[in-house]
Amino acid sequence: MGVIELYKNQVFLTGYAKLPEGITARELYGVVALAMTVDKCTGEILDVEPTLSTYLGRTFVKELLVGEKISDLNQLEMKVKKHYFGSAKKAILTTIKMCHKNFSKINGKLV
Asked: Locate the DUF3870 domain: which residues (predicted)?
């Protein structure tokens, strides 16, 4: 199976948001970026990479989101609000909303 075949049903989405002052990630990056690959047909989030300053933070956000549906914004927001209590919570929620909006545009369902 070639690379084109492997990725033909995937899309790459990104979202960006300002980070709060006084946290390490802001000093390093200025903003948080959330990149994800999503199955275009099912909306399943296949992989996630946030620009957070710690490996544990990046891994935690990834594990929260992978396997969920980008189309189910309420579920994604609920999971982050229930389980993530880092200083970048609001910024992460904003990046998820941006990815959701971009996916909706791709599928012709602007929300």
From this structure: 12-103
Question: Domain 3-106 - what CATH class?
Answer: alpha beta
User: What is the rounded CA–CA span in Å between residue 105 and residue 92?
Assistant: 20
Which ranges constitute the DSSP H helices of 2-88? 3-7, 24-29, 55-65, 73-83
Contact by Cβ (8 Å): 49, 35: yes
101/76 Cα distance (integer angstroms): 13
Rounded Cα distance, 32 and 92, in Å:
7
Predicted pLDDT at 21: 78
Taking each helix axis as running N to C, give the angle between helix 89-106 and helix 73-83, from 0 to 180 degrees, rounded to the nearest 10: 170
Domain ranges of the chain: 3-106
Please write the tens of the pLDDT for every residue from 35-75: 999 999 999 999 999 988 899 999 999 999 999 999 999 99
